Each structure stands twice: as structure tokens, then as C-alpha cells.
């Protein structure tokens, strides 16, 4: 028995906006921090400038540069208060762009946040369903070479989001995962735990766009938010006050009839001067999340509403899985947390499906009646970190350790072993 298998595995789910990390078997992650690294630029320049003779200074500068960086909220605070730190966001649109920064990020996750020795724990990491196999090799290389981990499994985040439903119902591994994070939105159909790759849809609207849209609406209305804080304010307004409405026109009327009830007031402090300011939050409360249902109000390039994309995704899946897919549509990711989001999604999807059934019955002249299709959008309180929770559930099963790639395999075959991550070891 591997001694590391006796300890809980470490589960790290890195997204574009936030990284969730913790130990398997827990119900929620120990930390949720923004995926950002602040690197001290002054060291890098110092080591370039010093002369050849002064190699000790160069060496020390190199060592310090390796250690002098911050991640998450600390990184954001550092970059605000001092100009020597440069922010770098290692993940964009769900893909890792900057491997150096990513390695530093993981380093602090392990040593400063989770405070664990990577050599003592198996690791479960996540990736988006459209990641290239090369990226898995890089991940494997960093984990096995730099951190010397005993075992690693790289899971597709949508499968984990389905697994998060394990505890609530009987294990239902067929469903559509609607994963809307900060930087990427994917609709991924999964049948019996396997992703139906050809039917994956991704839409170019995600949490960041909702923030940008709220920001734009507040700017156009002339709210006096200090420019250096405006995105941060827009993001907080989105997280605290936005909700999904059933009909925009009715909602506009409601707001106009009783502004006192629906208008919110935001109070902040200017970061440079410390002077207090306040601004009103009005229509953007429901117009923000509306970009998923009527994208044309935000972008002229992409105009297909989310329910239509989900419907097309299911229609392109194998016919014998479709009913099961409609019945289990699982939400995951922070941008599905808007109030009544699942209700609106379910209603719009049901309309599309019912209209199709009516049209087909009309074509057949009413001779054949089909069974009504059950549409069910599942919403649960852990949506925000459903992927992490699914990882925690899976990594605490004994089968998990058997499915991991081990250090010994890596030493023998190299990074290419990380390309395939079998769901069950016996079935390649």
C-alpha cells in the first residue's frame, strides 16, 4: 500500500477567475482565491544589470525573485499598494497561457495555503473539456518534476460537476453540464461518465462579460465610480445584486413603478484619496444576467441564446441519450448562481422542446402522439464549487488511487502518460 494513499488527496480546481483548493473528503474547499500571481519585477531587472563579477548578487537576486511573489487576494493587494509588482493571470478562457506563473501559483497553493508537502499527497487537478493533450503533458511535467508528487489525475471539470450530484441522488452520470465560469462557458453532454466530444458547445459569453456589461451600463449612465475601481465595483455589484428575471419589459416597468424598492445604493471609498463615494444600481441588476438569454443586447457577433445552444447540443448527441440528457441538466460555475437562473433556463428550454413536439405532431397529422419530454435543470447550493466538490467526492474513493498516474510510471514512460486519463483503469 502506498503510504501517500493513506492521506487525503489534494484537489485543486483552477479556473480563469478563481481557484478552489482543498483536501478530498471535505464538503467545501479550504480556499477560494482569485487566479492571479503578482511577481516582483525589480529583482528581474536587478539581475540583468549587475556585472558579471558580482555573481553572488545575481544569484541572490535570482533566488529572491523565485520566492518573492504573491497569489490571490494578496497579489491584488500588493499590486495596489506597490508599483514593483506586476500582475499576471496564468489562465485565460479556461486554458493555461503562462506556465511559469501557473507553476508559481501552484507552489503557493501547496506551501502557503494548504500547507502540505506535495510529496505526501496524491493530486487531482481539473481542466476544461477542450484542452489540448500537450497542456496535460506540461501539467504532468510540473507536478512530477518540480513538486515530485506521488500520483496525479487530471479530470475534466464537467464530469466532476456531474459527480457532485453523487451524494444528493443515486449516481447519475448522464447529463448535460452547463458550466459558466468567469472566462469560459461550455455546454458538455456526458453519457455514463464519458464526454460526448463531438457535441460540446462553447459560447463566448461568460462571467467576465456580465461584469463588463454591468460596468458599461453604469458608465453610460454616468455613475461616479473612480475609474481605477470601476471593474472591481462592477464585479461586486454583479455578485451581490444581479438576478435573472422572467421578462425584461415587465422588469423595466417594475423598476420604473417602484424605484425605491428595486434601486440599490453602492457605497465605496476611493482607493487613492480615501474619500467616500456612492452610486445607484438600477436596471443592470437584471440586464447583466440577461446577456445569456438575449445576447444581442451585449454583443452583435454572437446572438444565440443559451437555451437554444443547449437544445442544439442535445439534438446533436446520439438519439438514445437525448431524453436522459434533457432530464438532467446540471449547472456549475459561479456565473450560474444568479437568483432564478435555473428557473428561467428550464422555462425557455421547455418552450423550445414543446414547440418542436407540437410541430412534429402537426406534420404527422396527429396520428402519433409522442411521450412528452421531461426537461429538468438541476440547481444545488454548491453550484459555485460543484467541480471542486465532485473532485473531493471522487478522490476519496479507493478507485481514485488506482486510476492515478504514478511517479514510477512517469519516470518510466515520460509525460505522454498524462495525455489519457482513463475513467477506470481497465478500460482504455
UniProtKB/TrEMBL annotation:
<keyword id="KW-0009">Actin-binding</keyword>
<protein>
    <submittedName>
        <fullName>Actin-related protein 3-like</fullName>
    </submittedName>
</protein>
<dbReference type="InterPro" id="IPR004000">
    <property type="entry name" value="Actin"/>
</dbReference>
<dbReference type="GO" id="GO:0005856">
    <property type="term" value="C:cytoskeleton"/>
</dbReference>
<keyword id="KW-0206">Cytoskeleton</keyword>
<dbReference type="InterPro" id="IPR043129">
    <property type="entry name" value="ATPase_NBD"/>
</dbReference>
<dbReference type="Pfam" id="PF00022">
    <property type="entry name" value="Actin"/>
</dbReference>
<comment type="similarity">
    <text>Belongs to the actin family. ARP3 subfamily.</text>
</comment>
<keyword id="KW-0963">Cytoplasm</keyword>
<keyword id="KW-0067">ATP-binding</keyword>
<keyword id="KW-0547">Nucleotide-binding</keyword>
<dbReference type="GO" id="GO:0003779">
    <property type="term" value="F:actin binding"/>
</dbReference>
<dbReference type="GO" id="GO:0005524">
    <property type="term" value="F:ATP binding"/>
</dbReference>
